[in-house]
Design brief:
CATH topology of the domain at 67-191: FAS1 domain
Number of strands: 7
CATH class of the domain at 67-191: Mainly Beta
Helix content: 25-40%
Largest sheet: 7 strands, mixed
Order of helices and strands: HHHHEHHHEEEEEE
Number of helices: 7
Shape: globular
CATH superfamily of the domain at 67-191: FAS1 domain
Strand content: 15-25%
CATH architecture of the domain at 67-191: Roll
Length: about 200
């Protein structure tokens, strides 16, 4: 056999044997993982921890100047804000205190028939309206964890029955759905029903 041809055949056969081995050992560009960096991954900012200094506890908000301002600024208490104005209680609640207010939500007012709401807003029924509103006001600054089961005297002169069961607080038949909205002269707890004084029939 021609020597040149033998070298060619030998080289071809050797290449056929070595190529798979070399290919297996060589870096595979298409399957190679992207190079890793040694820079540390930035940590996500820590979530505020309820009850820890510097982060608000559940249900709290920035302190308002007074409870009237707090109610005016809360989108769930629009009806209460207008009713307080109709009853001429703004000055009392702005300047006095401290107060604990069980504030009926807009949904609580919506549960009352429209004719009843209209009747309460008449000038001749203003005293009755004031009596209802002040029945939602308790002297002092009582946060949710300070409330205890029992009778609590209100600004209307009648007592409400507070029932504390674990994390749930009820005032007569109303349930506190958002506690501890803090103002400079008191605290507001939003309730899901209007609390009626005894012997008052709407």
């Amino acid at each position: 056999m021609n020597p040149r041809m033998r070298r060619t055949i030998t080289g071809t056969a050797l290449g056929a044997i070595l190529f798979p081995i070399i290919a297996a050992c060589a870096p595979q560009q298409t399957a190679e993982a992207p190079p890793t960096t040694t820079q540390p991954v930035p940590e996500a900012p820590a979530s505020p921890t309820p009850g820890v200094q510097g982060s608000p506890a559940p249900g709290t908000q920035t302190t308002a100047e007074n409870v009237v301002d707090l109610i005016d600024d809360n989108p769930s208490l629009r009806t209460l804000a207008s009713v307080i104005d109709e009853a001429d209680l703004n000055d009392t609640l702005e300047k006095g205190g401290p107060y604990t207010i069980f504030a009926p939500s807009d949904q609580a007012f919506a549960a009352i028939p429209a004719a009843t709401r209209e009747r309460l807003l008449r000038d001749e029924n203003r005293q009755q309206l004031r009596q209802i509103l002040t029945y939602h006001v308790v002297p002092g600054n009582l946060t949710a964890n300070q409330l205890q089961s029992g009778q609590v005297q209100t600004q209307a002169g009648n007592a409400v029955n507070v029932q504390v069961d674990g994390q749930q607080v009820r005032v007569n038949d109303a349930r506190v759905i958002q506690p501890d909205l803090q103002a400079a002269n008191g605290v507001v707890h939003i309730v899901d029903r209007i609390i009626l004084p005894p012997n008052l029939n709407l």
